[in-house]
Amino acid sequence: MRRFTIPVVLGVLVTFFVTALAFAAPRFGGRGPENVWCPQEGRGMRWGLGSITLSDEQKAKILDIEKNFLTKAADLKAQIQAKVLELRELQLKEATQEVAESIRAKITEILDLQGELSSLRKDMYQQILNVLTPEQLKNLPPFGWGMGKRGPAGFCPRFF
User: Which residues constitute the domain of residue 114?
Assistant: First the structure.
């Protein structure tokens, strides 16, 4: 009996130890202090701007660009929400050919609006890049999926 008890107890202890290590490890895709270009860092720190020094004039211009984007994006988001609500209402109707065509058309409208929003985001980012000097652009960290040290799990810059 003792012959089997010791290995079983040791096995249970090793399992608990490994489990404790797994729970103590940082989460996959976690954010560390070296990742200064996350939106959580505050205004002006997104899109890699936290790693470069901005003048007061540049900060003001970037803030104006962001405000302009937010007002335009709010309108597009409201339109998208309205179209999604209309789509859900169509999905509740009895399935007919007309309803199916209406659903396809509504999905196309939603995708077009989402494309406009994406284009607006890209334009805003390009406008922000135009505010920066060539030296600041060189010091800007990589941006996008698979860029930098973290790869897809560390893709942090998120737009609204």
Answer: 37-154
